[in-house]
Amino acid sequence: MPTRRRAALVLSALALLGGGSFVVALAVGSFSVPLADVVGALVGEPVEHAAIVRDLRLPRALAGFACGGLLALAGALMQVLLRNPLADPYVLGISGGAGVGAMLAILLGLATAGINGFAFLGALGAMLIVFGLAHGDGAWTQTRLLLTGVIVAAGCGALVALMLSIAPEHKLRGMLFWLMGDLSQTGAPWIALAILAAALAAALPFARELNLLARGQDTAQALGVDVKRLRYAVYAIASLVTAVAVTSAGSIGFVGLVVPHLVRLAIGNDQRLLLPASVLAGGALLTFADTLARTVVAPQQLPVGVLTALIGVPVFLFLLARHRQ
Fold first, then answer.
1. CA of 153: how far to CAs of 42, 99, 185, 213, 274, in Å?
2. CA nearest to 148, candidates 159, 137, 140, 158
3. CB 188 within 8 A of CB 248
4. Cα–Cα dist 262/72, whole Å
């Protein structure tokens, strides 16, 4: 099958999968809503369960799709930037910085808006620290950036552990849910969706240069790529979208690590196709996982990060076993 035709089929299948994830998310819950009522609620008809579909399930499904797409996009960009197949959106300590900010806000008793604001500031602070320390006065190599991110992430992890150890017992559950990923407290999803669209639009013009960078820095420079400028742009986009995703839903693992690998196996490593396909696959995966998280033990809800880990661990082990050589 020609490569373009296969890529078009994969993108179409992922788009249908994303649409299916919305239908399932809107119809399934502690009680099921008939498909006719779901459609009626979306078009504004006064059906019986319209408020549940429009006011509760739809914003959460949109937030889940947006955060999944953001994490998958960041993971795909990080893997090219660091030329490391194990890179994910959290490898540079951004999630740790957001965790420090969110835990501090919860300790101070702030509302959801305050928690989100502190989490974003923490993620932004970690991003600037990693960028400043990795750049320094010398060359900015992938190894130096990765090691700096690991050290910053370890420091943030220690601060989070310290705050958990001194937190009052009645606040621990909320803190743990945030750290494990939780979409139940997400606000308006339109901001995350708008940032996802803007980030994808900003990254796609660099797709050809990213294809060359994936072959090696020397090859990219020989073919006219401004590697320094490209690294700055990719780092900024990946870091900011990770900060937005973590601020919106907490720390959700494995989406940014596993999804780009699966998409790469399906359509290859052409970033012009890989980036939008990763967004669709990541959004669909997180939407499905969140639906499971709120229905498996309904009416009790599970942290969605637990479900993504349970899905991601066996999938990633399978990929490692398949490509162990």
1. 42, 10, 25, 26, 28
2. 140
3. no
4. 11
Give me the residue label for tokens 């909320």. Answer: 174
User: d(Cα 80, Cα 191) in Å, to the nearest integer?
Assistant: 26
Distance CA 278, CA 157 (A): 28
| Average pLDDT per block of 10 residues along the chain, 325 residues long | 71 90 86 81 76 85 93 91 80 87 90 85 88 68 80 91 91 85 78 92 91 82 82 86 87 86 84 93 92 83 84 76 62
Joined tokens for residue 287: 């939407």
Residue 45, Ramachandran bin (φ over 0: left; ψ between -120 and 50: alpha; else beta): beta
**Which runs of E-coded beta strand occur in the chain?**
none
DSSP string, 255-286: HHHHHHHHHHHHH-S-HHHHHHHHHHHHHHHH
The CA distance from 263 to 267, in Å, is: 6
Domains of the chain, earliest start first: 16-322 (1.10.3470.10)
In Å, how far are 167, 225, 276 from 259, measured between CA atoms? 35, 27, 12
Residue 225, SS3 per DSSP: coil
Distance CA 170, CA 258 (A): 35
> What gap in Å lies between CA 268 and CA 162, rounded to an integer?
43
> Cβ-count burial of 281 within 10 angstroms (0-12 exposed, 13-18 middle, 19+ buried)?
buried
On whether the CB atoms of residues 62 and 248 are closer than 8 A, the answer is: no
| pTM, to two decimals | 0.89
Give Cα separations from 109 to 102, 182, 203 (angstroms).
11, 18, 38
Question: Which string of b and e fits 291-309 if b means at least 16 CB within 10 Å?
Answer: bbbbbeeeeebbbbbbbbb
